[in-house]
Amino acid sequence: MKKILISTLALVIFFKVTPAFSECIGLDCPPDRGGPVSQLQYKWEEFKSEDIWKPDNDKYWMNKFRGYKKYPIKFYNDADLYANSGVDNTRTVNVHDYKTYTPVSARKGQIMYDSTTYTITYRRGSGERYCVSRDATFLLRGNSIKLTPDMPLKPAGEVYMNGEYFMLLRVPGTSYVITIDDHGNIVPEFGQIDSRGFYLVGRDIIQIKPEGTIIKSYSDSKETYSRPRFNFSVTYGGVENKEIAFVIKDGSGEVQTRLVPMYKKMVTINGVRFQIIYVNSNYIEYQIVN
User: Fold this and answer.
1) CA gyration radius for the chain?
2) Is 5 exposed, middle or buried (0-12, 13-18, 19+ CB in 10 A)?
3) Which of 159, 153, 184, 185 minimizes the C-alpha distance to 171?
4) CA nearest to 125, candidates 172, 87, 79
5) CA 241 to CA 264: how far, in whole Å?
6) Residues 161, 4: Cα–Cα separation, whole Å
7) Given phi > 0 = left and psi -120 to 50 = alpha, else beta, which region is 228?
8) What is the SS3 assignment for 41?
9) Do 234 and 246 touch, CB atoms closer than 8 A?
10) What pLDDT tens digit does each residue of the chain (290 aa) get?
11) CB of 2 closer than 8 Å to CB of 74
12) Taking a C-beta distance cutoff of 8 angstroms, is the pair 6, 130 a contact?
């Protein structure tokens, strides 16, 4: 499937037409004339359920599309469009940002390191969808369709016209589709998807208000944040008998003191490596090196 990627996208609107087929055989025969059961027939069942497809509208719409051009549609597979939806991705983030290999200092009783963390859970939305960039109205001969940015538009497929690919987007609750290019620009032509999987383009031009409205990616993905969690802290405890004292407090509130000889220049505490630059009984200079 050729993927049309857009940061913001474009549109055109379509209706269902039931052409007057005189003869049909095999794959050329539409589903309502005894054609084969296929994905296309399944799609057609969705389209013809709309009021606009009722028989008493057939002649009207054929007249509207007199002189139309038609292009084959490559329908998208829902399994591809929704392959990565509903997947949770969780990561742990430190509340405090300690830059490595940056000299810092602490006085006796001050915290040298605090590993309080929180988690961010990112949940992907329900597949690939798009929306208008702002509240917009599409006008054609007195008829109108109103769309808003909170109305997701699901891709139906794509067509190749005039050396370029265009995406077709379904408008929920209607038989319309919107045609866009790969920059999100709306194609201001009137068209439809017919029963044999063709995109029909007529001569009518639609008006889009306000001008400059485009299509963009729609996302109902969201991030959730946990409450901060205290894991452990390291406080400078001064010097005792020529040994550096590090006071370690863990998440349960337990406190212990670790003594390290003053000549030692590298200390690892709970996986964090401290390089000692200078130390006296009331003051320490150090940097984190991992």
Assistant:
1) 32
2) exposed
3) 153
4) 87
5) 14
6) 14
7) beta
8) helix
9) yes
10) 444 544 433 444 443 333 333 344 344 445 455 444 444 444 444 444 444 434 444 444 445 545 567 888 888 887 667 666 666 788 899 999 899 999 999 999 999 999 999 999 877 666 778 889 999 998 876 778 889 998 888 888 888 888 888 988 887 777 678 888 888 998 887 677 887 888 877 667 788 899 889 998 887 677 888 999 999 999 999 998 999 999 999 999 999 999 999 999 999 999 999 999 999 999 999 999 97
11) yes
12) yes
Q: What residue has token string 């007195």?
A: 142
The amino acid sitting at 142 is G
Q: Where are the alpha helices (DSSP H) in 53-181?
A: 58-64, 78-81
Q: Which residue has the tokens 């474009």?
A: 10
What are the residues whose beta carbons fall under 8 Å from the beta carbon of 103, sequence distance 6 or more?
277, 285, 286, 287
8 Å CB contact between 14 and 169: no
The residue type at 152: P
Q: How far is CA 149 from CA 26, 153, 278, in A?
A: 42, 10, 59
Helix residue spans in 8-57 (DSSP H): 39-48
